[in-house]
Amino acid sequence: MSNWHQIDAIQVAQNLGTIDFYGLSQEEVNRRLAQFGVNELAERPGKTSWQILWEQFTATTVLVLIVAAVISGILGDYKDTIAILAIVVFNALLGFNQEYRAGMAFAALKKLAVPTVRVCRQGHWEQIIARKLVPGDLILLEAGDLVPADCRLLESINLRVQESAFTGESESVEKNSLPVEGADLALGDRHNMVYMGTVITSGRGRAVVTETGMNTELGKIAHAMQTVEQESTPLQRRLDQLGRKLAIASLGLVAIILVLGWLRGETINVLILTAVSLAVAVIPEGLPAVVTIALAIGSRRMLKRHALIRKLPAVETLGSVTTICSDKTGTLTQNRMTVVVLDVADQHIDLPANPQQPIPLQPALDLLLTAVTLCNNAMLSSRDAVDTANSFGDPTEIALLVAATHFGMQKAQREQEFPRIAELPFDSDRKCMTTIHESRNPDLWGLANYPYIAFTKGAFTILIELCHEVWVNGQIQLLDATWRERIETAHHQLAATGTRVLVVACRLLERLPETIAAAEIEQNLIFIGIVGMIDPIRPEARMAVQTCQQAGIRPVMITGDHPLTAKHIAEELGISNGQVLTGQQLNQLTLSELESRVESVSVYARVSPQQKLKIIEALQDRGHIVSMTGDGVNDAPALKKADIGVAMGITGTDVAKEAADMVLLDDNFATIVAAVEEGRVIYDNIRKFLKYSMTGNASSVWIMLLAPLLAMPLPLLPLQILWINLLADGLLALALSVEPAERNTMQRPPYRPNENIFGRGVGRDIIWVGLLMGVVFLLLGYKYWSTAQASWQTMVFVTLAFSRMSLALGMRSNLDSLFNIGLGSNKPILGAVALTFILQLAVVYIPWLRSLFQTQPLSTRDLVVSLAISTVGFWAIELEKWVIRRWNKNRRGQ
Ligand code: ATP
User: Fold this and answer.
1) Residue in 194, 192, 177 with CA at minimum distance from that of residue 141
2) Mutation pick for ligand 1 pocket among 325, 428, 604 (CB with most ligand atoms within 8 Å)
3) Residue whose CA is closest, atom 12 of ligand 1?
4) Model's pTM, two decimal places?
5) Three-state DSSP class for residue 129
6) What is the mean pLDDT of the chain?
7) Which of 504, 508, 689, 768 gives the lowest tally of CB atoms within 10 Å of its CB?
8) In 3-state terms, the chain is what percent helix, strand and coil (to 5)?
């Protein structure tokens, strides 16, 4: 363990070959990258390829097939045994390939979720991914960051770090940059070091990286951090159970067949063969693969729409979301703040959006602008302030700096007159921020008796209560009722038009207080003025709100902003019904009182992150599936508690991203709605697969069950059934999983999460369409059999195989006719149909396959008849959809 903590900060930087405020040169970075490698921990190995392969062979359904193969072998039918085993192996390889690829897709997602860090190289601050850090890099740390490597602090501003990963202590500890004595100090006692894997809970700091990757303390204990979790989803678990139930059901069927056949006096060989065929017919072999692939494809599609899935079950839960709770700033609005109004005690100035020339600075505004410039951590990229996109910092603060620049005020210059001594950083609980400065210009504003001045800016409702005096053109007056009324009116007028209002205040200090704490400093303030800024709503958010409403999802706005501002913006977006609940009112309600209001209130204002938890709880108690957005450290518990925690990709802290199920790469509300739509599509497609696969299987079962009633011999061999299942579940089904959204996807209510998978027509179709197809195909076979044509079994086999092609096409939509959605809207399925057709012809016309599958070549006429009859299921489905469409239309017309 190196002892960086004992050495003086400047010395540490020197030893690491770095220069403060310059950092490393690019060549040096490259050299160190080559020497130390990238800054990442060796991964905890996921499932190995062997494990994935083993799981393919040990699924219950596959075990039934293996038993079937063994039984065929015992009965002396080696050809069947080998063929069944070959198909099992082929199926397993297919499953392996899909699962492996899905795994790779998730690994790729994981790479996208890596945290970034602000680093100073060659004198420039830039944002890089944390993997690229090298020892000696200078970095900035602030509340919400995951510490990206082991570092020695060079500067700490109230920096607190939660180190429970090492110390087990969940309370955060304060850090500073002073050397600490003692060579073998425990990590927890090294107050000037921060370690990879810990979390900055508050404050800010500057540090130099001492160790990276596996050389860090975290690396040493080889505790790997997985950022994207790959766990099975509730639906996957339910489908697993379904697979097991079907295996048991197939055993039941086998028993019935055995008894019936035995009573009719069949030979034991025929009986067992039938039983095996049936068992094979019932099982939807492709189910697990289809679900995995649908989820993987789904998360890729979500990524294209800027939603990064971090936890797989989220893909599915998204389809069931009933309430989307969203922050306002940046998600519903653009987070492009512009100062439009400055209001000091005796003056009100409307600022033009883009003044072409500097506005003369009147003395009355000087203190206000100085305050917002100094109590500010943003950095403008250039002096002319036009390029806000490349500026650093909080958009609110950037806007304030830009406004000050319009008056010709420069931050660097003011900082020389008033160097910053301490800071109480902004947090969304206090809703304000304070900085303390030494005054080197006592002539200014008559500050001769006060060597220090504290500037505070923050939310109106909070700060106005802390102000007792008011600054009126160089004079300090008591903030009496008249002043209060005047200020309240000014604020009210602004907030009612959606303007975000900040109060700016100061406190004159004769000496520095012993402890710099909010409770000490942020009181008895002198009101300087208010600043009004606007943040335009995102145009796409309004559309997304409408989409939500049509989709039976309620959008709810939760903001730290003032109720009036919030209400105005909510109205603009179409969210509001006039009711607004504030954080304060929320605190006074018991959980059950809140439950009774939570369904009707769509706007919450002045809410702190803790209160988000209570809102989620009340909504969940009312049976809602809640998605909640958040960006700060304090939002993490709410993100965990929500059914779908959504973190902001741009403004969000690492901690929020870690806690979230999904990250919005563009911080946009519309992206949540897009992800919900994708979630619904995935759910739909899995159900479509289930319906398609089980309807087809049901038809095979009916053929096998009913044939003896017509005194016919076995129409299908186990191998033939298995072949059809392989074609159908392997090729056609996969193509179903990429089916695009239906036109009503966002016009119907969400799925209940524990809704029966066989609901909404799935079970009904499996029963009636399956039976219809089975009976029709059997009758076709009967016609050929009764006229003693040798090809009768082949007719049944081929027709059944062909039927899967048109069935898949018919089941592409639950609502629209194939002729409406068009053949071209899912091209992979056309390929799958063509391939199925060719492969099926191959087993009938290629001699060695013919002998393996025991088929007869069919005449062209028979082939055409088979193709025509095979579409019966397709027409049945189309007819059913037509009836439903008409019925819906009539109902709407009433
Ligand atoms: P939302 O909760 O909708 O994302 P918000 O920015 O209003 O947006 P918070 O970030 O919790 O929510 O801010 C709460 C209030 O704190 C704001 O309304 C504003 O008055 C004040 N505030 C925001 N940023 C700063 C800042 N940098 N310094 C001081 N006060 C701030």
Assistant:
1) 194
2) 428
3) 560
4) 0.81
5) strand
6) 86
7) 768
8) 50, 15, 30
